[in-house]
Specification:
Blueprint: E1 4-8, E2 14-18, E3 28-37, H1 40-48, E4 50-51, E5 54-55, E6 60-61, E7 65-73, E8 85-88, E9 91-92, H2 98-101, E10 112-113, E11 126-130, E12 134-136, H3 143-147, H4 149-162, E13 170-173, H5 177-188, E14 194-198, H6 201-210, E15 215-218, H7 225-234, E16 246-249, H8 254-263, E17 269-272, H9 285-290, E18 294-297, H10 305-313, E19 323-328, H11 332-339, E20 348-352
Parallel strand pairs: 13-14, 13-16, 14-15, 16-17, 17-18, 19-20
Antiparallel strand pairs: 1-2, 1-6, 3-7, 3-11, 3-20, 4-5, 7-8, 8-12, 9-10
Helix pairs in contact: 4-5, 7-8
Length: 359
C-alpha cells in the first residue's frame, strides 16, 4: 500500500509525498501509525526550521506523538507480535553514554528522536521503530489516547521533578495542551487550589469545563510580569502563606516565565515545562535569588510511559476531551495549518489513519 507522509523542507515548505516503506531490522518492529498528535514544536520546525540547536537541514517527516499497530517484527523481537496495539516513545538513546548508564537517558547527547532532523517521524502510514521503545496499550486505551501519552509524559516528568503536595496550591501558566494536561494531572495529584492562566479566553473557558474546580486568570496585557504575578497570588488568598508552592510554566514564553517567578511564594518552585526561546534576557534574577525560588527544568521524559498508560487505563486521568479536531493522514498538511493559527480554537489536533494497512 502507499505510504503518505508529511514532510518539512529546509526552506520551510510542507510536502505531502509518498515515503519508502522500510523492512524492520534486528530489534525493530514495523508499525502502521494509527494516530499522531500535532505538537507546537512541529509548527516551529515548519515556520522557523529550528528549535535551539535542533535544525532542519533537509526534508524530514514530522510527528512524534504517536500510537499504532505492529505489522511485522524483526529478528530478535520476542515480546511483541503482529497485531499488538502500541504507543511510540519517540526518543531512542544511545544506551552507552554516562547519562544512559545513570538512567537519565533523556539527556543522551546522541538520542535519535522521531520527527527531528534527520530522523523521520510518525506522520506517515508505515514506520520502523526499535521494539524496546514501543509500549503495549491496554484494550481500554484507544489509539487517540495512545497519541496523548507523549505530552502526558512531558507533564509526568515535570510533576515528578517539581514534587507536588496534597492540599497545596499550584498555578499553571498556559492553557494549551500541555497546560491542560498539567492541570488535570495536578488535580489528580491532590494539589489544591489550582489556578490556570492564559491570554486567550476561549482556552480558559475550556480549562474551566475540563477541570471545574480550577480558577482561571486571563493575563492582563496592561500589567507587567510582576503585576500579573501578584494578581495571581491574590487568587490563592490574601496572605503569601497560601500562595502557590509550585508554578508549572507550560508556555516557554519569556514574560510568562517572569510572571511565574512573581506568582510563586518565597521558597517555592517554578517548574519550566514549556519550550521557549534559546536566550531569555529579562529574568528577575535578584527576585528569584532573594526569595530562594527554585527554577527547575526538564528535557522531555524518562521512564514515564508505563505510569502514563496506567493513569489512562486506570481512569486516574481522562484526556479524551482534549482532542478537538481529527484529520485523515492524507490531509495532514491541513491539520498542521489549523494548529499554526491559534485563533482557530483548536486544543489537540490528531492525524489519524483508519486504513487497514497491509504489507
Amino acid at each position: 500500500m502507499p505510504n503518505p507522509s508529511l514532510q518539512v523542507t529546509a526552506d520551510h515548505l510542507l510536502k505531502q509525498i509518498e515515503a519508502p516503506v522500510l523492512a524492520p531490522q534486528r530489534g525493530e518492529v514495523l508499525l502502521q501509525i494509527k494516530a499522531t498528535g500535532i505538537c507546537s514544536s512541529d509548527v516551529h520546525f515548519w515556520k522557523s526550521g529550528r528549535i535551539g540547536s535542533l535544525v532542519f537541514e533537509d526534508d524530514c517527516i514530522l510527528g512524534h506523538e504517536a500510537s499504532g499497530v505492529v505489522l511485522k517484527v524483526g529478528e530478535g523481537v520476542n515480546d511483541l507480535k503482529t497485531g499488538d496495539r502500541v504507543a511510540v516513545e519517540p526518543g531512542v538513546p544511545c544506551g552507552l553514554c554516562f547519562m544512559c548508564a545513570d538512567g537519565r537517558y533523556n539527556l543522551c547527547a546522541d538520542v535519535k528522536f522521531s520527527g527531528v532532523y534527520p530522523y523521520h517521524g510518525t506522520m506517515q502510514r508505515y514506520k520502523t521503530h526499535p521494539a524496546h521503545w514501543v509500549h503495549r496499550l491496554p484494550d481500554n486505551v484507544s489509539y487517540a489516547e495512545g497519541a496523548l501519552l507523549e505530552p502526558l509524559s512531558v507533564v509526568m516528568n515535570g510533576i515528578r521533578s517539581a514534587g507536588l503536595s496534597l492540599g497545596r496550591g499550584v498555578a499553571i501558566c498556559g492553557a494549551g495542551p500541555i497546560g491542560l494536561i498539567a492541570l488535570a494531572a495536578a488535580r489528580a495529584s491532590g494539589s489544591h487550589p489550582l489556578v490556570i492562566t492564559d491570554i486567550e479566553p476561549r482556552r480558559l473557558a475550556f480549562a474551566k469545563e475540563f477541570v471545574p474546580s480550577c480558577v482561571t486568570y486571563q493575563v492582563n496585557t496592561q500589567l507587567d510580569a510582576e503585576g500579573n504575578g501578584r494578581a495571581i497570588q491574590k487568587l490563592f488568598g490574601s496572605d503569601e502563606y497560601f500562595a502557590p508552592e509550585t508554578v508549572l510554566e507550560c508556555t516557554g514564553v519569556e514574560t510568562s516565565v517572569c510572571t511565574a517567578a512573581y506568582a510563586v511564594r518565597r521558597g517555592g518552585t517554578v517548574m519550566a515545562i514549556g519550550v521557549g526561546r534559546a536566550i531569555m534576557n529579562n529574568l528577575p534574577f535578584m527576585h528569584i535569588s532573594l526569595a530562594e525560588i527554585k527554577l527547575k527544568f526538564i528535557n522531555r521524559y524518562r521512564d514515564t510511559w508505563p505510569s502514563s498508560i496506567a493513569c489512562l487505563s486506570g481512569g486516574i486521568l481522562d484526556l479524551k476531551r482534549l482532542v478537538s479536531h481529527t484529520f485523515p493522514l492524507e490531509q495532514a498538511k491541513d491539520a498542521l495549518e489549523l494548529v499554526s493559527d491559534t485563533r482557530n480554537g483548536s486544543i489537540k489536533v490528531l492525524v489519524v489513519d483508519e486504513v487497514e494497512a497491509t504489507l
